[in-house]
Amino acid sequence: MAPSILAADFARLGEQIQSLKAAGCQLLHVDVMDGHFVPNITIGVPVVRSLRQATDLGLDCHLMIAEPDRYVEAFAEAGADMISVHQEAAPHLDRTLAAIRAAGAQAGVALNPATPVETLSEILPQVDFVLVMSVNPGFSGQKFLPGALGKLRRLAEWRAAHRAHFQLEVDGGIGVENIAGVVRAGADIIVAGTSIFHTPSPRESFEKLRRAASLATAEKV
What we know:
Blueprint: E1 2-3, H1 13-22, E2 27-33, H2 45-54, E3 58-64, H3 72-78, E4 82-86, H4 93-102, E5 106-111, E6 129-133, H5 147-161, E7 167-171, H6 179-185, E8 189-192, H7 194-197, H8 202-220
Helix pairs in contact: 2-3, 6-8
């Protein structure tokens, strides 16, 4: 489980992060938006640097930005452990992923809902993770798009057939009602924002989602 801080109460962010860590959270999802690639502006390098100073949890930075090559090194230096860039925004994806790794972070590629997984066929051997968007990027609180399940299955099948080791991440519209489905489809990392932070107790919501995901994982074995 990777709670998305985009949905958090920023006035209480440190407190909420500590509460999630006490519940067993190991990874935070950080949505970076620039108002160009997506129609919203969120946080940048200084916030990631502050997060790194405030917590030792893993930081998974999802760059929903134009010209990501200009910024991947800065985010890695600020403390990002994982950095994903969009296939749609990175015309030289091989070079971008190599730059992320050279900066010391895990390198991932994200796919918008309308982008076929087949566009990644040449790059999959070089990625550490693939982030499948189950909503159109830009805003939290959107409804889950079921087409993401087919993408996860196809990527999981490719991974098994080629004995690859990249992880599958899914982001958008995930709650207790559909988390089992994304786990069964092959997701290893599940991003959830609204269903955790927009509740009376983010910690209890995180724990509930994690239990549901664990049960679905056990069913796969």
